[in-house]
Model the fold of this input.
Amino acid sequence: MSRETDDYDCDIRFGEWLRSARTKQQLTVEAAAQSAAMPAERLKALELGYSDRGITQDESVRPSKVYRIPLEELLREATRA
Done:
């Protein structure tokens, strides 16, 4: 398996986890993005695993607060291989 495939698989797993966290809070993508002060398209890309750069540490603070997830947990899930 190539590094690119590994990165893509990690992005997909993180996206599924992030989507699950959002739905547990009963938020639509649009409502979550608005509360997190980030573009809905960016949040959708993260949830679908189509983010070319993953989620940055600075960026991760916003959904962490909206989804009521400790930042450390979100970062751990984002980097889990």
About this structure: The chain has five helices and no strands.
